[in-house]
UniProtKB/TrEMBL annotation:
SUPFAM superfamilies: Tetrahydrobiopterin biosynthesis enzymes-like. Pfam families: FolB. It is an enzyme of class 5 (isomerase). InterPro entries: Dihydroneopterin_aldolase (IPR006156), FolB_dom (IPR006157), GTP-CH-I_C/QueF (IPR043133). NCBIfam families: folB_dom (TIGR00526), PRK11245.1 (NF008418). Residues 11-121 form the Dihydroneopterin aldolase/epimerase domain. GO terms for molecular function: dihydroneopterin aldolase activity; dihydroneopterin triphosphate 2'-epimerase activity. It catalyses: 7,8-dihydroneopterin 3'-triphosphate = 7,8-dihydromonapterin 3'-triphosphate. Its EC number is 5.1.99.7. Keywords: Isomerase. GO terms for cellular component: cytosol. GO terms for biological process: folic acid-containing compound metabolic process; pteridine-containing compound biosynthetic process. This is Dihydroneopterin triphosphate 2'-epimerase.
Amino acid sequence: MNQLPPGLARIRIKDLRLRTYIGIKEEEILNRQDILINATILYPAADAVSVNQIEQALNYRTITKALIQHVEENRFALLERLTQELLDIVMQHEQVRYAEVEVDKPHALRFAESVSITLSAARD
């Protein structure tokens, strides 16, 4: 497991299952499909730890709601585009120092469980 730098917290959003229009084939354009979202977010948590108040923490519920709304209200041709847009939503929060977003498209290939794309971003 990756070593976490001191003072940073790691938030993981695991297996957020949503339905959206994703793909380039006619059946994909016309029908919603399942996707799975996994996100890892690093942010400085010293204030949240010492004060124990939500105002000092990065609110993962707010981030998750924004991801859900974006996925459910839009259409996407490529996993790459969807993944980048979700990463951009996470990085809108100034507290975020590093984020990684992975989007899985189950059963995209005949003999594979899923296909996924992972993108990351960092802030100094």
